[in-house]
Each structure stands twice: as structure tokens, then as C-alpha cells.
């Protein structure tokens, strides 16, 4: 198993690729020579400065906590909803238009309504983000649930698997690619929504900071905050999604 | 308790471009407890469909299946192993609490050494043997076998027949065995039922006279 | 007429600049001075700043500390006055708060974020005059102005520091102003009336079109004069402003008039420099960037009155 | 075929379901009795008024055009990229980090950079939206491409299908659920991004209108604009996605 | 031109929990143009793997396959029909410009009336017959048949054998036929090759003497 992990892991290509990205960025920033397109060096120095002052860790930690909580809520609810809709065609016929409506209501409308109704509090943020993201997860997982192989469900039925076993051994493995897609997109989307929700009505978090620096047009610091989050996602990628992906690759022909 | 199959009417409805198909119209069959019945018939008459109905997987027909026990072993016509689980893990899934049986069973179907292979990397014959092991593993009271010895060379096929035969002797499940080979039917079954036509009817239903029935 | 130079001004659809520009165009004040003033509508202040950076407009309205900071980082913008009205600290009618010192431990809504000029000035004011550090001893709630108005109306915050035209709506609904930014500046020992907001433009553009710039400032001041004296003008503007009721319109009208700058001389510019030091001390590097002092070019030298 | 279309179509349930939604909305609005939660009646009257004045059709048409163009660009590029990455593991190892970076850079950063670099022109909007959405499509389709059945590819190889035939007859049908998920989510996401991009630098479009009304806190008009777009999506759903979905359902067991 | 199969070494590498497997080590076989060779061997020896290599689908081995013509017909061990296309459409896909042949072929394999059925609604035997029709449809110069008559009842199986036999007579493709039944091999093949062991070797290679060979 160990050999496999090394072979199919992100490995050295990933690291080289990121370094390459930074080099390219550096060169184009040099070439552009504009204060509106800062290079990695000045971004890094802003980043370090913000870390030193303790501002960035504080806001980043808050945003990460919000993202994590919303992510879990949205993924669990969305997946459950998606599977139910994918399996029960009758119910889907009824709920599909609602899903489409919820999917397409602009984030800002949901955010305004939740803030107005629940006040500028943490719950409002979570509700707004969940309401924004759940339909996306549900739409993806519904397709996955529809593509579930009846053959396997019949095996589970014949051999009377307990529901938990059926979910773990029969359903999840088939949904894995959909879960991965929904997870990766979900994390990115939730982070983007959290930013918007923060900038409209929270007094801390990366979104709040971005907005402040946007007002000053401090592009370097804006990119520094974005870079800090992207770094976190790359770590999550390494720790969470990549191993999941390897598990799928293990059994495919 | 005997197994009473009474199908008044089974129709596959028109769906997409697929036309409607009336599969059965009045088909009754009763199997005594522990009886082994070979089901024979041309390709496409409805053998697999009947097995699905008997197993309770297809309830979309008029008629009744009575006396179906809860423990069923069903060897599907395709292996239907979970591709994300190795051969051994596939067996372990139906053997909760008795996982050590998985290795023994694999050895019995001649797959010692291939326990940790994922199904998509097994040959078809090997995969079907794992599936057979799975059907036998649960020691069912109702055993449904859809062409258990197809895609196997003569020697392996013989070995599997002996294995099934031993299990039939041991735990005496009521058994429905689909096969295209009269010698298989004769070797294992107490009775041979032939279905044919569209809609399919029982065109022959006769007992096999052989030592075991006399035991 | 085809020869007349066009000035593109980035503004908000329902913002105060739109009123002034509408007055200019309605009365043909721009053409009278030989220019064409073309409004380009945006949805947010940030969008207008992006547009100025991208060269899509010639002018936007913003505050001069922003201009100073951009200059410090190589963005050669310059500034001339638009209004002295910025923010107002406002409390609900029934509130017992009459003074900044009573904000201790209260939830204070703040529009625009922690680096907003009004908020920094309020903090400086509270610290210097009451020994109160509002950032620590009160609970600031940052948010979008409309949401904060709503929070105040629902009693979920105790006071709000917001832009004057949002405050005017609250006032019309019965809320009570406690302190304006002009008061804060005075309280900080700066006697001159300093217009915080003004037209910002690229220096290069201004040196190429000095005449047009001069004409525009004249036209704008004439428009202000009209708005300062005529009630009819405000009735006409009501749809542009986006209000239905008279109370709000009245509040907006007096707010606007109070913000009209009357002097823009060396005194005001020097006073602004002093104010900048105060802002820098409290806002720190995050606010001012590399611009620790006000570059002289920040205030467009050719315009004064 | 006609019978099938009627049976598995959105049918009456969809219409009843939307009516139900409007009723529920009406009742809760009545019950809330707040000008910040307008009911369907006042939203409809605002909508009609905006239509009468010709404002809504103008802005909606512009936004729809932008959404349509961006949607096509993002779907085509994203699908192609996703398939390539899903098939060529080596390339994927190199490009995966870039994809994750692009996926997680906040929309606002991309928007500022494109606007500043390309100017406040229509192209900048399209580039910003595409840059925001392409990675999402690619991530979903990559999972789809990885799940492609080698068995079918081998059939195509043996019987020497032309590339176009392979794509149309072998690849697309297997990717259909992923395409549907990416398409539905994509439309919603692009619409949301277009709103943000519009409010940051265009002088027309629904996003511009929404933000303007937000400043006046005219919730009724905000919801009216949202409703107008949602209505368009429901029509697209009926005309585009639903028939596609039915085609998949036709062959599934 | 004759087909020269020369496999020096074929290994399935260790992958996940699946252990490494050395499949062939030195296996050579030459088929004359138009020769029909039956490939026989126990389940899991590597018959399917060899066919994949001959077809050019698996190039991950040391050794060479020479004289492979471009037109290949390959009946895989599982049907591999495109489930989103009906039986007829599946055939039409390999018959560009001659789509009317699809209906005729389906009738020849006994599937008249099931042309518009989607594969997942065909019985396994029916699906395999469509796949056989597809392999024959292209009139290949190299025909690879992996257990073409498995899962079929005796009568249908006989019909299919006749069909294949007729095609062999008519267009004389070089043919590799995997089968577990000596009578099938004897009826169709010019030569029977038996492989066995691990790694698999040719343990028997003998000509079949029958009328056709003498023609
Ligand atoms: N889901 C389905 N929908 C429509 N028709 C079906 C479906 N499943 C099977 N059929 C049709 O029912 C008939 C019987 O199929 P079945 O699989 O039971 O045959 P079988 O006797 O098992 O054949 P074989 O020996 O080839 O496996 C076939 O004509 C098939 O086309
Ligand atoms: N992709 C793969 N990865 C690893 N091992 C494989 C793979 N495919 C086949 N094998 C192994 O190679 C051996 C031969 O498989 P193959 O399918 O060629 O057998 P076969 O002779 O066709 O058997 P059958 O008669 O059962 O179809 C088996 O032991 C199988 O486990
Ligand atoms: Mg069958
Ligand atoms: Mg094989």
C-alpha cells in the first residue's frame, strides 16, 4: 500500500507545479510593473506582516471555521437531499422546481433576507451559506443517485445488508466521483459565498478584511489574504481529497 | 414450507423505443421444501425474469409467490461483485461475524491466491466463481442459480457442480437452477421444468429419477 | 458643440453625486461652460474606483485620504472638493445616548468597515476628548449601510455611524443625530471646514484638460448654488434621489446643503494635512500604506476658492 | 415516444409545485407583514411596472446575453479541459494545483485584475466569468472522465470509430449525468457571478439594478428582478435540461 | 499474411491490494491466413488477456504481434453493447453507410422483433447474440471470439455456430476462438491450442482433421 500511495500521490509534480506557478506570476508581475498587479514577493511580505500583527491568523481562523461548519452542513444536507430526490422520482417531480428556484435566487437576496430576519449574527451567516450551497450539492448528487446501478442494490437487498452497510459499501463507493466533484466545488463555492456574506454584515473574517482593503484599493493585501486561503485549500486537498481519490483509483481497471 | 409460484401475468411495459413484452400469462409451479428444480428454456424466454420475481426483486406483476424464506442465495447471471472490494471482502460482506469463512470458500472455488484481487482484474470465470461462493456462503433456505457453470472449462465446471451438490446434500435448500445443459440438470435436479414460447408457458415438467431422490 | 470636451464622471445610480450632475445637465450648466458632463453609472463605490483605475471614467467622487494613499504607491491621482458631509452618528429616538462617552459597552453599527474615515475620526475623537477607546470598549458592528439602518430600526444595535444620506432617512423616520463628522473634526482641534469628499481624477488627464476641469468646477458650484436655494429643484430631483416621502426629502435637502464646501484655500489644505496625521496615528499603515504624509500634489493646485 | 415525453416530463406536478410555492410565499409574507418580505402580489406588480417602463426587459436581456455567452464558453472549455485531465493522469498531476488555485481565488480578485487589465469592457466581463467558472466545470467533468468505462473505449478502438463518433456516441452519453450536474450548477453559478461582475463595473444588467435597489433597500424590486431571472431559468429547464434528462432515462433499466 | 504472436513476457503489475501476476513467459503461436484456431484452457489462465493483446488493446507486454490486419471483429467475453443505443443502433454504429444490414443481421441471430430494445432490457443471451452480430458485421480479416456460444441454449447455440461457420466459409478471416467445449472447437476450428499453467504455456497444439480442412 505504501508504494501505491507514493506512486499515485500528488508527489513531486504538484510541488514543482506550484513553484512554476509562482515563478510565472513573478515574471508577469515584473513585466507588468504595475502596483495593481503585485508579484509574489510583495504579496509574501504583506502576508508576513499581516501574520506578525496577528490580524491575518485571526480573520483566517474565523473564516476557516465558518467555511468548515457550512461545508459540513451543506454537504450532509445536500447529499441526503440529492440521494432522496435521485431515488424517488415522484418526490423529485414535486421538489425539482423548488430546487431550481433556490439554486438561482441570487446569493445577495438570500443574504439580505437572512440578515434582515435573523439579524447580523453568526446563525444568519450559516443559514445564508447553506441555503446557497445545498441546492448545488443536491443537483450533483441527484445525478449520481440516478446513475446508481440497480444490480448492486439488488445484491444488497438479497443479502439483506443493514441500511448503514448499504450506504457505506454500496452507495457511497458509486457516488464517490460525484462526492469528490461536489466536495471540491463545494469548498470553493462556500468560501466565495462566505466572503460575500462576511463583507455584507460581519465584523471579522477574510471577506470583511478583503472589503476593507478593497475600499483602499490595496491589491497586494487582497491577494495576500486570497493566497493564505488558497494555501489552506491546497493543504486540505493533500490531506483529504487526494487520499479519497487514491482509494477510488485503487480498484479501477 | 413449499414454494408456490403463481404468476397470472407479467408484462414489461413499453419504455422509450423498447416495445411492450408480455412475458408470462398463467404460469404456476410448486417446489417442495428442499426440492431442486432445473429451469430450462431458450434464450430470452424469461428464466432470469422468473428468478428475479421469485427472489422478490421484481414485484411488478400480477400473481403471488408464497413461501419465500428470508435467507436467499442468488447467483445472478452476471457476477455483480462490488468492484471496490476485493474477492475476499466481497464474501466478507455477506458473512458478518464469520469472516474467516471467506478464505475457506474462496479456496473451495479454486481461487486460493486470488483473495486480494479486485473484481475488475479477475477473469470472468473467476468472478463468477466468487459470485457462486457468495450465493452458497449464506447457507440459504432458497437458492437461485442462474447458469452457475457457464463460462467455465470442463474441469472447473465439474468441481463447481460437486461443490453445489455437496451444499444441496448438506443444507437442503429449495433450489431453482437455470441451465442450458441437460447433463447439469440431470446431475443436480430432482425435477426439470422447461419453459418456452411468448408468453412463456411450462411445456415440460418431469421428475429426474436418480439415486439421490431415492435416498 | 461637437468640439466640447466630454468629462466622464463615475457615480452611483442613487448617490448624491447623481443629484448634482442631474442639476448640471438639466440646467445646461456644463454646456454653458463649454463642456459636456457625462455620468457613467456604477453599482458600488468600489466599481467606480475600478473604473477610474482602468481609465473608463475621468472622475469619481471619493475621499482625499484615499487619494493621498494612492499617490504614496505611485497612483498619480489628484483631488478637488465636493462635500464636507460624510458620516453621522445617530441613535434611535427613544435612546438615552446623548454623548459619545455613553457608547461604552454598546453595539455601534459602523458603515464601511474599520478603516472607514468616519469611524477612525470618531475613535480619535472619543479617545482625545473622553479617554474612551471605542474599538475595545464598545462593540462595533460593521455592515452594509442599508442593513445597518434595518438593524437600528429593529433595535438590534444601539447607535449607528453611517453615511449622511442614509442617516437622513433614519432622521426622517425619527432617529436622532448625536454627532457629525464635522463635529468630530472640530473636536479634534481642527477649526477649518475640511471637505472630506471630492472629485478624484488622474493628474495626467487634468494637466491635459485644465480648462475643462476649471469649467467643471464652476458648473458644479453653480449647481450647488441652485440646490442650496431652490425648493423646486429638490421636488424635481425626487425620482433621481429615489424617495417618495417629503420628510426624507427634507432631511436629505438640509443634509446636502450643510455639506456644501465654501472655502478651499491654503488654510483648509494645511488643516487637512494635520487631520491626516491624526488619521495615520489611529489607522496605521493599513490605512495610509506608504503615504505617511500628504503629498502636496494630492490637492489639485489649480483649484481654490 | 410522445407518450413517454408526457409521462416522464415535468408535467403537471411541476406546475402545481410552483403554484404551491407561490401560495406558501404569499401566506408567509402576509403572516410576516413586513415591507422587507414582500409577497408575490407586490413583487408581481413591481415586476409589471418595471416591464412597462421597459427597464427590466432591457437589463434582463443584457444579463441573459452575458450569461448565455459565458455559459457556452465555460461549459465548452471546462468540459474539454476536464476530459483531458481525466484521461491524461500525467498532465493532471501537473495542472491539478493550478486548477485548485484558480478554483479558490476569490471572484473579486479575478474581477479586479481583469477589469484593470482589459478595461471596463464586455470582454473583461466574459473573461472574469469564464475564469471563475471553468475550473468548476473541469473538476466535475474530470471525475466523469475518470469514471469512463474502458470497456466501451476498447469497442470504439476495435471498430475504429472516428473521433467525432467516439465523442458523440461513447463519451458524451457516459458523461451525461456529469454534464447535467455541471450544466445546472453552471447556469446558476454563472448567473451569480455575472451579477457580481456587473455590480463591480458595468452600467447595466440585473446585477447593476440589484445593487442600486439594494442601496435604496427596495427589497420588492430586488426580488422582482431575481424572480424574472428564475422564471427564465425555469423555462430553460423545460426547454433544455428536462429533454436531455428524459433521453438518459430512456435507456436506463 | 500470417498472424505471428510472440509474447516474451506479460506481467500484470501489483496494483492496490492486487498482487503481481506473471501471465505469460515465452508463448509463440502462428496462424496462417484464414486459419481458424480454437484456444482452450482453464478459467483464469489468460485466454482473454491473450485476445486483448492480439487485438492491440493491451500493448503493455514484451514481445510482438505481427500481421494484424486493420479490420478486426472482436466478440468480447461480456457483450459491451452501448446501453444508450438500441440493439439495431449498436449494429448501425459499426456499419456506417450500410445501416440496412443491421436489421438483417439481427434477424440472422434470432432477434427479429427486438431491434428497438435497449441492451439493459435484453436477456444476457440476447445481448451476447447482438455482440456476435456486431463482430461479424464488419466482415473482418481477423476475428476474435471469446466464448461466443456460452449462455445460450443448445438450439440457439447450434444456430449461432452455423452462422459463424458460414461466415468463416465466406470471408475466411484468421480466427481465434476461445471455447470450453471440445465439440465447438472440433466443429469450427482447423487447429486446437490448449494453454495451461502459471505462467501459461501452450500444452497442446494439434490440427483438427475434418471435411472442411480437406476442401
Ligand atoms: N427490464 C426489462 N424491460 C423490458 N424487457 C425486458 C426487461 N428485462 C428482460 N426483458 C425481456 O424479457 C425477456 C426475457 O428476459 P430474461 O432475461 O428473463 O430471459 P432469459 O430466459 O433469462 O434469457 P437468457 O437465457 O438469454 O438469459 C427478453 O425478451 C427481454 O428482452
Ligand atoms: N487488469 C488486470 N490486472 C491484474 N490482473 C489481471 C487483469 N486482468 C486479468 N488479470 C489476471 O490474469 C489472469 C488471466 O485472466 P484472463 O481474463 O485472461 O483469464 P481467462 O483465461 O480469460 O479466464 P476465463 O476463462 O475465466 O475468462 C487472471 O488470473 C486474472 O486475475
Ligand atoms: Mg437469463
Ligand atoms: Mg476470459
Description:
The complex is a heteropentamer, with two copies of chain A (253 residues), two copies of chain B (215 residues) and one copy of chain C (305 residues). Chain A has 253 residues and is an all-alpha fold. Chain A has helices at 2-8, 11-32, 40-52, 55-87, 89-104, 107-118, 122-146, 150-158, 163-201, 206-216, 219-251. Chain A has two domains: 1-33; 45-151 and 179-252, MetI-like fold, CATH 1.10.3720. Chain A is globular, with a radius of gyration of 21 Å. With 215 residues, chain B is of the alpha/beta class. Chain B has two domains: 1-71 and 139-215, Rossmann fold; 83-138. In chain B, strands 5-6-7-3-8-9 form a six-stranded mixed sheet, with helices on both faces. In chain B, helix 2 (87-94) crosses helix 3, helix 2 (87-94) runs parallel beside helix 4 (124-137) and helix 3 packs across helix 4 (124-137). Chain B is globular, with a radius of gyration of 17 Å. Chain C is 49% helix and 19% strand. The longest helix of chain C is centred in the last third of the chain and has 23 residues, at 266-288. Chains A and D meet through helix 2, helix 5, helix 6, helix 7 and helix 9 of A and helix 2, helix 5, helix 6, helix 7 and helix 9 of D. The structure holds adenosine-5'-triphosphate (ATP) (2 copies) and magnesium ion (2 copies).
Radius of gyration of chain C: 19 Å
> What is the H-and-E element order of chain B?
EEEHEEHHHEHEHEEH
Helical content class of chain B: 25-40%
Name the quaternary structure: heteropentamer
Rounded Rg of chain B: 17 Å
Sheet/helix structural class of chain C: alpha/beta
Low-pLDDT sequence parts of chain B: none
Q: Quick check: average pLDDT of chain C? A: 88
Strand content of chain C: 15-25%
- Termini distance of chain C? 29 Å
Biggest sheet, spatial arrangement of strands of chain B: 5-6-7-3-8-9
Specify which chain pair forms the largest interface. A-D, 67 and 67 residues
Question: What's the average pLDDT of chain B?
Answer: 92
Q: Characterize the biggest β-sheet of chain B.
A: 6 strands, mixed
Bound molecules: adenosine-5'-triphosphate, magnesium ion
Count, helices of chain B: 7
Order of the strands making up the biggest sheet of chain C: 2-1-3-10-4
Structural class of chain B: alpha/beta
What share of residues are in beta strands of chain B? 25-35%
Query: In total, how many beta strands of chain B?
Result: 9
Amino acid at each position: 500500500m505504501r508504494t501505491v500511495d507514493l506512486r499515485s500521490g500528488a508527489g513531486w509534480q504538484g510541488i514543482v507545479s506550484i513553484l512554476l506557478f509562482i515563478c510565472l506570476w513573478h515574471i508577469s508581475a515584473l513585466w507588468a510593473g504595475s502596483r495593481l498587479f503585485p508579484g509574489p514577493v510583495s504579496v509574501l511580505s504583506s502576508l508576513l506582516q499581516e501574520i506578525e500583527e496577528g490580524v491575518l491568523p485571526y480573520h483566517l481562523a474565523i473564516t476557516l471555521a465558518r467555511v468548515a461548519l457550512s461545508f459540513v452542513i451543506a454537504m450532509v444536507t445536500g447529499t441526503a437531499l440529492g440521494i432522496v430526490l435521485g431515488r424517488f422520482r415522484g418526490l423529485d417531480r414535486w421538489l425539482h422546481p423548488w430546487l431550481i428556484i433556490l439554486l438561482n435566487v441570487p446569493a445577495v437576496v438570500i443574504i439580505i433576507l437572512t440578515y434582515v430576519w435573523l439579524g447580523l449574527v453568526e446563525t444568519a451567516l450559516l443559514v445564508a451559506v447553506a441555503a446557497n450551497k445545498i441546492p448545488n450539492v443536491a443537483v450533483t448528487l441527484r445525478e449520481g443517485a440516478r446513475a446508481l446501478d440497480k444490480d448492486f442494490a439488488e445484491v444488497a437487498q438479497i443479502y439483506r445488508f443493514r441500511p448503514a452497510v448499504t450506504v457505506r459499501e454500496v452507495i457511497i463507493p458509486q457516488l464517490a466521483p460525484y462526492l469528490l466533484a461536489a466536495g471540491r466545488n463545494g469548498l470553493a463555492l462556500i468560501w466565495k459565498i462566505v466572503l460575500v456574506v462576511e463583507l455584507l454584515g460581519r465584523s471579522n473574517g477574510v471577506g470583511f478584511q478583503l472589503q476593507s482593503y478593497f475600499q483602499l484599493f490595496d491589491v497586494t493585501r487582497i491577494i495576500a489574504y486570497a493566497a493564505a486561503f488558497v494555501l489552506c485549500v491546497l493543504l486540505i486537498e493533500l490531506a483529504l481529497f487526494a487520499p479519497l481519490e487514491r482509494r477510488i483509483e485503487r480498484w479501477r481497471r | 414450507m413449499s414454494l408456490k409460484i403463481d404468476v397470472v401475468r407479467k408484462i414489461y411495459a413499453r419504455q422509450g423505443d423498447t416495445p411492450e413484452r408480455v412475458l408470462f400469462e398463467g404460469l404456476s409451479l410448486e417446489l417442495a421444501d428442499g426440492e431442486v428444480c432445473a429451469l430450462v428454456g431458450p434464450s430470452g424466454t424469461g428464466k432470469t425474469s422468473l428468478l428475479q420475481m421469485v427472489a422478490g426483486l421484481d414485484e411488478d406483476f400480477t400473481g403471488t409467490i408464497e413461501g419465500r424464506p428470508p435467507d436467499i442465495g442468488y447467483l445472478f447471471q452476471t457476477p455483480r461483485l462490488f468492484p471496490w472490494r476485493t474477492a475476499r471482502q466481497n464474501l466478507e460482506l455477506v458473512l458478518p461475524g464469520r469472516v474467516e469463512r471467506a478464505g475457506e470458500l474462496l479456496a473451495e472455488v479454486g481461487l486460493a491466491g486470488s483473495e486480494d484481487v479486485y473484481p475488475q482484474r479477475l477473469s470472468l470465470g473467476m468472478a463468477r466463481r466468487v459470485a457462486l461462493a457468495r450465493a452458497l456462503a449464506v447457507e440459504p433456505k432458497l437458492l437461485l442459480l442462474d447458469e452457475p457453470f457457464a463460462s467455465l472449462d470442463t474441469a472447473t465446471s465439474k468441481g463447481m457442480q460437486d461443490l453445489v451438490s455437496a451444499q444441496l446434500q448438506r443444507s437442503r435448500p429449495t433450489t431453482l437452477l437455470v441451465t442450458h445443459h441437460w447433463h447439469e440438470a440431470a446431475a443436480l435436479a430432482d425435477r426439470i421444468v422447461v419453459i418456452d414460447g411468448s408468453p412463456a408457458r411450462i411445456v415440460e415438467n418431469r421428475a429426474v429419477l436418480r439415486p439421490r431422490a431415492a435416498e | 458643440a461637437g468640439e466640447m470636451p466630454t468629462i466622464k464622471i463615475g457615480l452611483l445610480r442613487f448617490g448624491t453625486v447623481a443629484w448634482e450632475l442631474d442639476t448640471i445637465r438639466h440646467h445646461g450648466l456644463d454646456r454653458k461652460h463649454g463642456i459636456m458632463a457625462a455620468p457613467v453609472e456604477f453599482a458600488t463605490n468600489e466599481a467606480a474606483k475600478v473604473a477610474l483605475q482602468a481609465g473608463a471614467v475621468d472622475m469619481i467622487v471619493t475621499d482625499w485620504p484615499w487619494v493621498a494613499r494612492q499617490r504614496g504607491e505611485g497612483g498619480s491621482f489628484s483631488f478637488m472638493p465636493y462635500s464636507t458631509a460624510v458620516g453621522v452618528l445617530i441613535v434611535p429616538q427613544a435612546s438615552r445616548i446623548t454623548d459619545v462617552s455613553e457608547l461604552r459597552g454598546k453595539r455601534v453599527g459602523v458603515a464601511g468597515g474599520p478603516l472607514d474615515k468616519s469611524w477612525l475620526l470618531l475613535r480619535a475623537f472619543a479617545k482625545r476628548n473622553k479617554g474612551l477607546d471605542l474599538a475595545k470598549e464598545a462593540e462595533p458592528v460593521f455592515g452594509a449601510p442599508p442593513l445597518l439602518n434595518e438593524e437600528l430600526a429593529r433595535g438590534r444595535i444601539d447607535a449607528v455611524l453611517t453615511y449622511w444620506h442614509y442617516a437622513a432617512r433614519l432622521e426622517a423616520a425619527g432617529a436622532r443625530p448625536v454627532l457629525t463628522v464635522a463635529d468630530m473634526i472640530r473636536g479634534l482641534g481642527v477649526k477649518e471646514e475640511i471637505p472630506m469628499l471630492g472629485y478624484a481624477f488622474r493628474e495626467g488627464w487634468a494637466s491635459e484638460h485644465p480648462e475643462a476641469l476649471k469649467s467643471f468646477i464652476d458648473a458644479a458650484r453653480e449647481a450647488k448654488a441652485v440646490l442650496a436655494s431652490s425648493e423646486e429643484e429638490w421636488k424635481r430631483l425626487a425620482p433621481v434621489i429615489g424617495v417618495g416621502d417629503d420628510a426624507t426629502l427634507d432631511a436629505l435637502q438640509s443634509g446636502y446643503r450643510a455639506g456644501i464646501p465654501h472655502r478651499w484655500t491654503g488654510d483648509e489644505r494645511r488643516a487637512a494635512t494635520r487631520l491626516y496625521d491624526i488619521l495615520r496615528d489611529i489607522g496605521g499603515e493599513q490605512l495610509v500604506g506608504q503615504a505617511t504624509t500628504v503629498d502636496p500634489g494630492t490637492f489639485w493646485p489649480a483649484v481654490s476658492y
